[in-house]
Design goal:
InterPro entries: ABI. By secondary structure, this protein is an all-alpha fold. Helices cover 90% and strands 0% of the residues. The chain has 4 helices and no strands. The protein starts with a helix and ends with a helix.
């Protein structure tokens, strides 16, 4: 049986590994977008040069339109994939945040319950503590006190 102390670092390590994979994948996707940008600039230069040299400009224009449409669709598709991945990543992080928030709320509630229990326990212990009533010795045994008073009166009356 694993203790929670050994389980947490493994979970963290797995989470770090997943995060690293997501970063690498996102980085690769951004590199692909940069590559698309370079391809589009190269294609634009090629069509510009070809258009200025070609006598059949209509064919170059049609080819350029087809290429531009395909490149635009490909770029939008790529951007959509990147946005989808970013949204999934953020949703996952929000889910983790919500889980941690719930755990924190539970811990706070447990802490309040423990504090209330400790406070009530302290009050009940204080109410059970009986203070020793301190009386003068002559009041503890009232029968003896009465006898002592009677003896003292007799002695006083005899001496008079």
């Amino acid at each position: 049986m694993m203790s929670s102390a050994t389980y947490v670092p493994q979970e963290s390590s797995h989470g770090d590994e997943l995060l690293m994979q997501q970063r690498l994948h996102f980085s690769d996707t951004l590199k692909d977008l940069k590559c698309l940008r370079k391809q589009l600039y190269s294609a634009a230069e090629y069509f510009e040069i070809t258009y200025s040299k070609e006598t059949q400009k209509e064919i170059v224009e049609d080819t350029l339109k087809d290429y531009a449409i395909k490149a635009l669709v490909n770029t939008v598709d790529h951007l959509g994939a990147v946005a989808y991945k970013v949204n999934n990543f953020l949703d996952g992080k929000m889910g983790e945040f919500s889980d941690m928030d719930l755990r924190l709320s539970c811990l706070e509630q447990r802490l309040r319950t423990c504090q209330e229990f400790a406070n009530l326990g302290g009050l009940s212990q204080q109410s059970l503590v009986l203070e020793e009533v301190k009386h003068n010795k002559r009041y503890i045994f009232p029968g003896k006190f009465v006898l002592l008073n009677l003896l003292a009166r007799r002695v006083n009356t005899e001496h008079r």
